[in-house]
Write a structure and sequence with these properties.
Chain lengths: ~240, ~240, ~240, ~240
């Protein structure tokens, strides 16, 4: 398999894993940087993530334009999230944007921060405050990252962190590989689920910065064991009642 | 396919989507206005929504009477919800009535309102306070919209909004098409799930009116992508152990 | 089919519905009064409810003894719940005992009562305060209704109500038929789920006594439509990996 | 079947039950003491628990070394949890280590204890306060029990109890047999779910020490009925989309 096809396959499998794990539903998307050119990225055409095959994965430049251009391919409106993060963060190889339900509450309560609550979530250390697109798009925004300029603001707000919350919308998470971005997207959701439950009991403690860093370093092995299981938990793509 | 059969098929598929997504269980119903006559609507005979085929969809006039009359067809008791909304709201093409569990809590706590908490739920802007049928049906009501008069009161209370909460009962939601009404019914439920979690963290902020309107305008594309996925997630109708 | 076999089939199907709907897991049980003799009842031998076939349903007298006696049939320890309720309540035709997870919290917080929060749950009106078996079995009880005397105390505590909470244990619910008892068991659980969510928003209101009574009267039709759907949602009994 | 193969089969089935019941995901592990030598234990090689067959179960000595040594077999990093508990507790025949999501909140809120809230959970009586590995591994620990020394501290902290919470990590639970350890692991999770819900209603009461002890004694029968059902609920191991 060529490096390009391998990368497209990883985007397809990762998209289906994220759908099976409840991180993505009809919306949200995963991309990875092209293995051939660092100024290109691979992401599905506009399609529910659970239905993506390698043939649905297209190549875009960092401005979010299809390469080569084609009129009949519909793209995700928010592809600028991906392009602008790849432009600003040479270390990032994969990006997930999600509306996962347990994360959205953390984006709409003022003063709430995303902090690592358990040993699987050290990567959350240093996450910035929630990004409010209204600061750049005005008071009547549809909240979407619908152009490169808003994408740049989001990428700047993300800074060197792994995850950024987006007000009334969801979150975007990065990784050094597709499996790592997928892992981080899933465990960001779990971290939120744990904190929501913990707050019923009282004020939780979070990892110290040193613990978070040590935990993050340990995760490499964990990522591949989880990926293997998650693949098994994906159903084959089949025609439903409307197929 | 004739326009009528197409509409019946949409009601059947939409009913099964709502069942698969947890919005309807043994109860609740979806209808659409007849494509042939604006004073008629199509809705399943009394049947669990997850089991509806196009052949189970019947035609009613706005007073809730079967057309043509037939004695052996059992109808939903609350069909007056649909008829009276179609009568008062010429723009409405489809209606969903549901008891979805995460929404009911919002109908029983005094002073609680339904407000758009995220970018998928702009359509909730302007939802009225909870409708209390006891104001019209007296203190010993069974809470059902069991005649045209109660249906008229509900339709008036809905006004120009997309959704109305019904005390100790559920909610009714409308759309300009079957997919839109289905989408609104599902995302009303998700909005409630998000707010319930957010209140564990603190007092949430909601969309501004301008944001809600902009978000609602953006949803058109979203509706069809979601519909396509939801169809795939419906199981075929099969005989169970009692079939 | 004989009346007895019909009743055994109803107990089998009802047990499997309760398992599929999450009301029973490895534990809990459903019974019905014998259609042939009002001083007998039918209930599964000790077996996970989701695995019950009509051949697993045995006949007991109201003292909880197998009729005819047989040494190799293992019975539920808590069969006295059923026998003593049938003895005290001639109107009762079916009984469910469950540990459903959303109900247990209501049994361990002092002062909490079970009250009807929505129109499907009128049957909850008049439920007594939580039954504490320690009042009769002493401070080191295993909390089980393990003999006829404790069963009698429970039946007295239930009185004329439909449901009784049991401290740190679960609940017992009755009906005038197997489908009604199954319906009541499922909707007691849903009532608890709704109240748990409502209390995140504030202090909920409950149905008035008049509303509860009117709602309960309306449920007859609802019960049979729900039963039909729930049957479809039961998986066939198959050997698992250990079978 | 030899005693050794029987024990490996029990570890395999128990691992898959714990995965199917949501106690283990890609992580966590079950072991049992070798039936042939009390200074050996059996546990899967590093593998997602839901995928474990008897052939994946290997034998380790109490120091966590593979017997006989083999270079190509990857082991769980935290196998020292198991070895050191078997060393300190001759009565223990099986151990589960889990990150089950509803338990983790109890490990991160200061002052929270694990106490038996219902009659299935008497085994929780006497659980110690949460174990904080940072007390032994320093302020920048990755929180894992990554060597025999940390395992010894954990085993000491467990003392004579059945369960120990581990800060920001999860819990470890023991039993006198594989089915009992599996049962305890599942019901520790349920106990946490019940308490989380109960705290929405108010301050829960817990079992008295006498009740807890009586309940624990009663569970023997319950364990085997549950095991039989849980086996049925395990899906066969199949290749997924990546298989």
């Amino acid at each position: 398999m060529s490096a390009l096809l391998e990368a497209k396959t990883a985007v397809s499998l990762g998209s289906r894993i994220l759908a099976a794990q409840g991180v993505l539903d009809a919306f949200g998307h995963l991309s990875c940087r092209s293995p051939e050119r660092s100024d290109r990225f691979l992401t599905p055409r506009s399609l529910a993530p659970g239905l993506v095959t390698p043939h649905d994965v297209v190549e875009l430049d960092l401005a979010g334009d299809l390469v080569p251009p084609a009129k009949d391919v519909k793209l995700f409106l928010e592809r600028f999230i991906h392009g602008e993060i790849y432009r600003r963060r040479p270390d990032v190889q994969a990006v997930v944007h999600s509306h996962a339900l347990p994360v959205v509450p953390f984006t709409v309560v003022p003063g709430v921060e995303l902090r690592p609550i358990c040993h699987m979530c050290g990567f959350l250390e240093g996450a910035p405050t929630t990004f409010d697109v209204a600061a750049y798009a005005g008071p009547s925004t549809n909240l979407l990252i619908r152009n490169p300029e808003l994408g740049r603001h989001l990428a700047e707000h993300l800074g060197d962190a792994s995850v950024v919350l987006m007000r009334a919308h969801g979150y975007t998470v990065v990784g050094h590989s597709v499996p790592e971005a997928v892992f981080n997207a899933i465990y960001t959701m779990k971290n939120c689920e744990i904190e929501l439950a913990a707050r019923v009991l009282g004020e939780p403690t979070f990892l110290s910065a040193g613990e978070a860093e040590a935990c993050a370093r340990t995760l490499d092995v964990a990522t591949s064991r989880a990926w293997e299981l998650w693949l098994r938990q994906c159903a084959p793509i089949e025609a439903g009642i409307g197929g």
